[in-house]
């Protein structure tokens, strides 16, 4: 490899002599290996190039972006679990001459107990690019689970049982000629870690069925700190003390045979674990004059912090990467007391500070009322111009007006039949026993011949502003209903999915993870689902999905900042999110309903459907009918808009939405972290219209 430098040397006024100096670059690094692998990090090792000159090198390590590092090993952190990464390493001399690139493909460990990611090296054969692979897997008892023919040299097994030993065989196929199968036994993870505090962790595991005398727990850090403990049979949990705050650990658990050695057939279960960081201290808040704002300051902890989150009355307000900078919280309400806390994070672990109460100076909210405006009946549609004053009047006296109005919605629709959802065979398909679709509005799947109850799913058709069946409101899928969920998406020709919950909230599973963890396809019955692009922003994530029987595309809008049973602290992000969704919907043609779901499919789901429909009504007709729309939704599905806080929040969103519509989020998407995804997303926009 040659790099060219040009040296210019003036010899006289008449001419200039140019000399070309060629410098050979270093050879590639040696023995590129993965020294440690977790779900969110890879420790990469290598040896320097074997060159005649004894150079001192720096190295360029490429995963997604390039980073220079002076020595091996290199620790890449903050990665996604169950994801294949292409790693490139090359040496750089002091003269800034780059060497040849050494490449390695590796998959990070999977967090999910229902999935296993497999990868293998293709055969060393000139025709290897023309190979396909047959991957088959069996349970420990010999029952074959499934088999697939694929073209890639990696695959993710989905819908597995936690803690079960599986045998996986991979056979290469070249023009119908099969190779000898490569075999591997592997376990789905059933090894759980819970960090109790900054220095203590609780471990729980399932003991193996094979004979053993004890369980060995080993741990290590990137700083080469190591340790181990042994726990005799039949213990299946333990507490480990003396860990360091804000430290990334790797924990591995083995079974030990009767002679004290690791069992020959034992397979180590590996899990990452980060200890909790320390809290901030000396939290102070000051109300800023002439604005509804608070200025916050604090003292950072001595241990490392990856980011901080400011909590205002238990709702996340700001996400800051720098711990030491003061923060100003704007857009608060006057005459209200707020509880302020600071969350310090070290990766997926966090600590919460003590609470400080702060108040905003009292300001008259109802300025410039127009006494000449005559408000129509509260329960019907009203002119947009009258809506702000009506909202302020309902907010007075502790929002008594909203309480009275919401109470009138409680019994609407409750006299309708829910007989199909209540059938014994369908009860296990319902996440919550009190949230069941009405018979007349339920989504019916195509019946499978062998199962007369296979047409049931907990989902309801919902009216929007433009069509009677513009939306489908659904519960978040359960492990047993994942295949039905994707069957509904396929049969209803759904091209837009709006998800308003996180899969886990406050330590409880609210929705089963139903899309692939990475770019490896997952199969649900005969439907193959792939992630094409993923755009991650602070308050939502957008995924473009490819769904195959015949190829279709769907876009997955995942709003990640809405708390369970509550409301976001401000209206800004949900309004921008809704405008982004509506902009794409208005471009589409001949697609099915919009699928909207949270966990139960009523609270956050009802609020979002109402917000979109009412903003469309305000734009087209110049009036808003909140009560009449929510009443209509509740006749199709119970508990739509589940509590009074969500009902008030809907009005706040409408008020802010009609007063100043958010700017187009196509601009917001042009962010350095996600810019690489934009062109890919635009490439197939036309296919979704």
From TrEMBL:
GO molecular function: protein tyrosine phosphatase activity
Signal peptide stretch: none
One cellular component term from this protein's GO annotations in UniProt: membrane
Pfam families: fn3, Y_phosphatase
Domain of life: Eukaryota
Localization, UniProt: Membrane
Occurrences of domain Tyrosine specific protein phosphatases (ranges): 575-648
Domain Fibronectin type-III per the UniProt entry, residue ranges: 102-196
Catalytic activity, reaction form: O-phospho-L-tyrosyl-[protein] + H2O = L-tyrosyl-[protein] + phosphate
Domain annotation Tyrosine-protein phosphatase: ranges: 402-657
Broad enzyme group: hydrolase
InterPro entries reported in the protein's UniProt record: FN3_dom (IPR003961), FN3_sf (IPR036116), Ig-like_fold (IPR013783), Prot-tyrosine_phosphatase-like (IPR029021), PTP_cat (IPR000242), RTP_Phos/Ushers (IPR050713), Tyr_Pase_AS (IPR016130), Tyr_Pase_cat (IPR003595)
Enzyme Commission number(s) of this protein: 3.1.3.48
Its membrane topology: Single-pass type I membrane protein
Alphabetic keyword roster: Glycoprotein, Hydrolase, Membrane, Protein phosphatase, Receptor, Signal, Transmembrane, Transmembrane helix
Keyword Hydrolase annotated: yes
Keyword check for Signal: yes
SUPFAM superfamilies xref list: (Phosphotyrosine protein) phosphatases II, Fibronectin type III
PANTHER family noted in UniProt: CYTOKINE RECEPTOR (PTHR46957), PROTEIN TYROSINE PHOSPHATASE, RECEPTOR TYPE, H (PTHR46957:SF10)
Name of this chain's protein: protein-tyrosine-phosphatase
Lineage: Eukaryota, Metazoa, Chordata, Craniata, Vertebrata
